[in-house]
Amino acid sequence: MYKKLLLRFTLLLSMLAFGNIAHALTIKIGHNDTSYDSATAALVKVVFERSGYNVSETKGDSEILLSMLDRGEIDFYLSAWLPKRDADSYAPYQENLELITALYDDASSFFAIPRYIPRSMVNTVEDLAKPEVSAKMNKNIMLDERNAILTNQAKEAIAIHELEKLGYELNVVPSVEWDTELKKQLEDKTWFFTPMTKLHRLNLTKKFRIIKGTEKAFEQKDTAWLVGSKKIEKKIATHIFEIITKMELSTKWVAEINQMVYENDWPYYVAARVWMASHPYTVEYWISGE
């Protein structure tokens, strides 16, 4: 079955380059240094490279990358979470930029808590203040250092709900340490909670549920957009631009790529190609002329 999928994927990718000679152009992509943006960027990179373009990547914060996009230093930025999270960063440049593709909807973040903690004990953020909950809960809230945006949102949530008065404290750590400590806490059935995005691979495990009541801090239900300058359509071939406009994803698909990277220790580029091989009908829709 896998060989058939791989063959179909190879044929589909070959269609990207059909009638399109190799280009000397380099497409410059900017994205945040998060697992989910790296996964999404890898998919876009595969499409461009198979279409004959070189691709370079720049990682940084939304404010910096959107300003670079406005100046023409990069061609695409992914992804801008709108209309909420990145609204202030996007607003100064929106006259010169174009929202090209809605990559995925419900790009949300939240506090997640293991399902083994009874809902009757912790269901909302206010429940964290219960004496019987506070006594059992690990007050050290660990965050992956790669996700600066989520860290800022978590800080805001802590402040809004005055959790620091209860002894809760954020601790930003390297990705490997975050993974190791989180796995240990799950195995030990420790009472804890952690900031998380809907695109995280752990959402596929069904081991966590959302703590309600933090919507103001985390600004739920944004759409993640692929953003380009209004001049980009003239830079790349028309049929390639049409493919990019059809590359709609989902938070579940991005999480699946992240899961493959984590479980197999693959580069994002490899995981993206494998994911595309297992979703041939999606790829076919992207590259079809319909």
Order of helices and strands: HEHEHEHEEHEHEHEEHEHHHHH
Strand arrangement within the widest β-sheet reads: 2-1-3-10-4
Q: What's the count of strands?
A: 10
Q: What is the C-alpha radius of gyration, as a whole number of Å?
A: 21 Å
How far the N terminus sits from the C terminus, by CA atoms, comes to 28 Å
- Structural class of the secondary elements? alpha/beta
Average pLDDT metric:
87
* Share of residues in helices: 40-55%
* Shape category: globular
Can you describe what's shown?
It is globular and about 65 Å long. The chain has 290 residues and is an alpha/beta fold. α6 links the parallel β6 and β7. It is built from 13 helices and ten strands. It has a five-stranded mixed β-sheet with strand order 2-1-3-10-4, with helices on both faces. A three-stranded antiparallel β-sheet has the order 8-5-9, with helices on one face. A two-stranded parallel ribbon has the order 6-7. α11 (251-264) packs across α12 (268-277).
Short summary:
This protein is of the alpha/beta class and 290 residues long. It has helices at residues 2-17, 35-50, 62-71, 87-90, 131-134, 148-160, 175-187, 215-218, 232-235, 238-245, 251-264, 268-277, 280-287; strands at 26-31, 54-59, 76-82, 97-107, 109-114, 140-144, 169-173, 194-197, 208-210, 222-229.
